[in-house]
């Protein structure tokens, strides 16, 4: 229960957590030393020193009280006080209120309590002067004031020890953090490389650090290389299949062109459908791999796509262009392909569509709305799977394809560290497709 309550307040960064692990034991050690050593040692030493002085003070008091008159008392006390290094005076009266100590004097209360315990005749004690302890006692021959050097009744205040502990703690923490940072840097570099790869960027990374960190780094590089090889193999395989099939398709088209136009028309349509399917397979296999990462203005990209559809007299309208119009790192060809797919889907199943873009510090969000029939909530996850066509939801009679359009867009989004979200359009009432890319 305690850990569950404390967890939201703990730091989340690796550096801050490591720093907390480093500093917390040092603070606990200093606190323990302060309590055990300062309280016990300094209090014990102070009691012993105060007891020794109280014996001398008790002897002075008894000497003064046993003297027959005031002059004799002062003479006898002076003879004893000088060798004992005690300054004795005889004031007219004992001060009514005295300031006992300063706020920073940690042992004054222990000294005063011990002296009063050992010498009940004491009327007042003042330790406002850190160098002396002033004591007032009412004897038979009048008030007597005794000044005792502070070093004789208490150990030195532990300020020096505390300062040494703090300074050494800071120095040791700084040295430890330097070594700890060298161990954390390889982990941080590996995290950056993994994050960049999730966004479709291959960052140079060389494993370093402790043995375990290097092993994890090598495993990450092996995994990344294996994924790259699999992607390249898939792309090369489908490219080869597409290339090999295009030759017989071309021969078929040439052969059909020699036939009667009425007889060849259905067959030519079949050849065109096969050609589109091959292109769709190749687009899905290619995704955005091999596309260079360049700095592109998302707003300008949306304007260009809108202009292309406008020249084709398509009902694609320009929506909101929000955020700074500044270039961001994107795979331009892949993003353009994804947006073209979304816009074509929107116009295929609806009469009009709208494209917008929202740029923030953390993400770029492309939005395509249409006024078509939309996709039911329970089938939106299925819609982005490869080779899936939702007949009842998207009116298959008005569209053609193999069900790879949204799958290609979703794959491009994931390669940029983003996601494709399908929701209901607030503006047009149909489907809203949001291509969200992490920056």
TrEMBL record:
Keywords, sorted A to Z: ATP-binding, Cell inner membrane, Cell membrane, Kinase, Membrane, Nucleotide-binding, Phosphoprotein, Transferase, Transmembrane, Transmembrane helix, Two-component regulatory system
Domain HAMP, residue spans: 181-232
EC number: 2.7.13.3
Topological type in the membrane: Multi-pass membrane protein
Keyword Lipid metabolism included in the entry's annotation: no
Enzyme superclass (EC): transferase
Protein name: histidine kinase
Species annotation: Loktanella gaetbuli
Lineage: Bacteria, Pseudomonadati, Pseudomonadota, Alphaproteobacteria, Rhodobacterales
